[in-house]
Amino acid sequence: MEKVKILICEDDKELLEIFNLILTMEGFEIDIAERGIDFKNMLEREKYSLILLDLGLPDIDGEHLCKFVCENYDIPVIVVSAKDNVATKVLCLEYGADDYIVKPFETVELVARIKSVLRRSKKRFLSENKEDLQKRIRWGELEINPLGRKVLKKGKEIALTPKEFDLILFFAKNRGKTFQREDIVETLWGEKSLYRWSRAIDVHINHLRKKIEDNPANPVYIQTIPGVGYRAKK
Question: Taking the model in full, what pTM does it have?
Fold first, then answer.
């Protein structure tokens, strides 16, 4: 069985000792980056199952680093930060973070959150039938390649973040159906409580519309149903 490898980006040495003790006891392999630049270099060299990301780094703004990871890597991200304000939490969720833990925290809660995010990630992977992954989906002017996680419009590739791709694949497989926001989040990422106090899902969909729609203000592929949620064009 392949071991779960976690990349921790944190500059607090005392907290790093706690991470090292607790997570290795749980059977996880860990790598540590104390600066944002080291974190980026390690991401390029190694493959990780999950990232723990502090926002208060000495060299790179943590929010920008969260955005960078979520746009360029399909790796679950848990933000671990002393910033306990709704604006920062919402921003990180809108960027694509999978969870947000406020310092100080109980170690048992940290481990539970890590295992929960890993379960959701594994569930998504296992639910992707290999035969279905090989079938390209045509939706209007769009061609979706589930296996390569790529989308073409009129033959030209569209650059999508991992969560944007999850969304377009979900809607393309459920054309003509209407979904509440919470149901979309729970189906795709297994967790709707994080989004109850924010409209992060709306931000993801708005970004996606700007990339796939000819006129994002009058969307064709993903339509808003007032008071309900969203419906995918047939």
Answer: 0.76
